[in-house]
Design brief:
The protein is α/β, with parallel strands linked by helices. It folds into 2 domains: about 5-235, TIM Barrel, CATH 3.20.20; about 240-275, no CATH class. It contains 12 helices and 8 strands. An 8-stranded parallel beta sheet has the order 7-6-5-4-3-2-1-8. The protein is elongated, with a radius of gyration of 22 Å. Bound molecules: 3-methyl-2-oxobutanoic acid and sodium ion. Sodium ion binds next to loops. Sodium ion binds near residues 45, 84 and 143. GO terms for molecular function: 3-methyl-2-oxobutanoate hydroxymethyltransferase activity; magnesium ion binding; methyltransferase activity. One of its GO terms (cellular component) is cytoplasm. Its cofactor is Mg(2+).
Length: about 280
């Protein structure tokens, strides 16, 4: 498998071919994603909820993101990987934003970074792009500012708000982003962005009229149980299956059905008799 490039992602948009991607936070999920042929992997700061059990993404640190990106990179060496910039790694100043974006590249060999926000983060997007890095924008529902948004809620459902989002999208492209992710926005609004922007516009919960789709791995697999956004389609119930497997192991070990002969090591021929001498 060959890792995609920005040029190929642009061509996929031009050809109307969907780029399909998923989040991953660890080595093994990343290796399964690569084996399944995912076009890209996002190491989302959703790891705060999915891995660390926080109620949101705000507590997530740069170090946590970098460590998880390292594992994902080793699991998916031939997949385009996007590192997600955590809260306070780019909001304070343009300089901090560039330095932290650079850390993802130097320490975890990501292919691109993503950050949340519209016009208000365009100076950061411009500076990171000027630093030679690929930056993806992220608008609509933006969990790092969910307090301002009044919770994890769909965005752009009124014309005025939708128009603002479209202006944000255009500004992000103008600032030098290579792609844009749109989260929890009505499909009609996402379609306008997809049609008006030359860079790829990807959807998570923004309908089918996008240049590709993103889903969160723990949602797809049915692992994350705390809540399920409307836009999630569960393809598996690994949470339930995991509990079943663990219960079976507990029962087997208690009843001594496990370990069986086949799970044990034999002594070297002739040594057993000597042991009892
Ligand atoms: O952190 C993440 O996984 C994300 C997606 C939910 C868009 O940013
Ligand atoms: Na995120």
């Amino acid at each position: 498998k060959q890792k995609l490039t920005r040029i190929q992602l642009d061509k996929m948009k031009a050809d109307g071919q969907s780029a399909v991607w998923i989040t991953a936070y660890d080595y093994w999920t990343a290796s399964f994603a690569e084996e399944a042929g995912m076009d890209m992997i996002l190491v989302g700061d959703s790891l705060g909820m999915c891995i660390y059990g926080y109620s949101g993404t705000v507590p997530v640190t740069m170090d946590q993101c970098i460590y998880h990106c390292e594992g994902v990179r080793r699991g998916a060496p031939n997949t385009f990987i996007i590192g997600d910039m955590p809260f306070l790694s780019y909001q304070v100043s343009v300089e901090e934003a560039v330095r932290n974006a650079g850390r993802f590249h130097k320490e975890a060999a990501v292919d691109a970074i993503k950050l949340e926000g519209g016009k208000r983060v365009c100076p950061q997007i411009r500076a990171i792009a000027d630093g030679g890095m690929l930056v993806m924008g992220h608008i609509g529902l933006t969990p790092q500012s969910s307090g301002q948004q009044g919770g994890f809620k769909a965005q752009g459902r009124h014309a005025a708000a939708a128009k603002e989002l479209i202006e944000d999208a255009l500004a992000i492209e103008e600032a030098g982003a290579f792609a844009l992710l749109v989260e929890a926005v009505p499909p009609e609004v996402c379609k306008i962005m997809r049609d008006r922007l030359t860079i790829p516009v990807y959807s998570i919960g923004a309908g089918v009229d996008a240049d590709g789709q993103l889903m969160i791995c723990s949602d797809v697999l049915g692992i994350f149980q705390a809540f399920t956004p409307k836009f999630v389609k569960k393809y598996e119930n690994l949470g339930g299956k995991t509990v079943e497997a663990f219960k079976q192991y507990v029962a087997d070990a208690r009843s001594k059905a496990f370990p069986a002969d086949e799970h044990t090591y034999k002594m070297v021929d002739g040594e057993l008799a000597k042991l009892h001498e």
